[in-house]
Fold:
Amino acid sequence: MSTPPRPTVLFLCTGNSARSQIAEALLRHLAGDRFEVLSAGVAPAPQVHPLAVAVLEEAGIATAGLCPKTIEQIADRAGTPFVITVCDHAARTCPTFPGAREREHWPLEDPAAADGSDAERLEVFRRTRDELERRIRDWLARHA
Structure:
């Protein structure tokens, strides 16, 4: 007897280096194996932002395997049931995913664009992580 496929959740952002990566790791952490979790960017950065990795690791959340991906790299998942954009640019330029049951937009400021000292920038990433965790917990409660 085969196990039915897990629903896929896709987080989309512009650079796929901070917000969407944090969301991907958080949902995996909070939902266990209930979903296949992906993230991608409309114009991916070359690497995950080091402060995104830092705030995840300080919260005890696994970061292994996180890497920026293009929408084309996840195109085989065109039937993605849940698509969540985490920046306005991605919301405006995101392609249509014909099989998506739900599409949500969570407008979050880009922590990678924060100015200030290293400590101040780290605090911006922490706020982004905490806001994403709150939103993901609410989302999970609706999809229990």
Observations:
- The two ends are 24 Å apart (CA to CA).
- The chain has one domain: 8-142.
- The chain has four helices and four strands.
- Helices lie at 19-31, 50-58, 88-93, 118-142.
